[in-house]
Amino acid sequence: MTPPSNTVLHNLATQLRIDSVRSTTAAGSGHPTTCLSAADILAVLFFDELRFDPKDPQHPEADRFVLSKGHAAPILYAAWAAAGAFPREEVMQLRKITSDLEGHPTPRLPFVDVATGSLGQGLPAGIGMALNARRISSDYRTYVLLGDGETAEGAVWEAAQVAAHHQLDNLCAITDVNALGQSRSTQWAHDVEAFATRYRAFGWHAITVDGHDIAALRAAFAEARGMTGRPTMIVAKTLKGKGCSIFEGKDNWHGKPLKKGAEADAALAELEAAIIPTSDPAPSILKPASRRSEGALPDFVAAMPAPAYTLGDLVATREAYGTALAALGGLDARVVALDADVKNSTFSDRFEKRFPERFYQMFIAEQVMIGAAMGLASRGAIAFPSSFACFLERGADFIRMAGISMLNIKLCGSHAGVSIGEDGPSQMALEDLSMARGVPNCTVLYPSDAVCAERLVAVAAATPGPVYIRSSRPKTPVIYGNDDVFVAGGSKTLRQSPKDVATVVGAGVTLFEALKAHDILAKAGIAIRVVDAYSIQPIDREGMIAAGNASKGRLITVEDHYAPGGLGDAVSEAVWDQGFSVQRLAVREIPRSGEPDELLERYGISAAAIVRAVKG
Question: Mean pLDDT for the chain?
Answer without folding.
Answer: 97
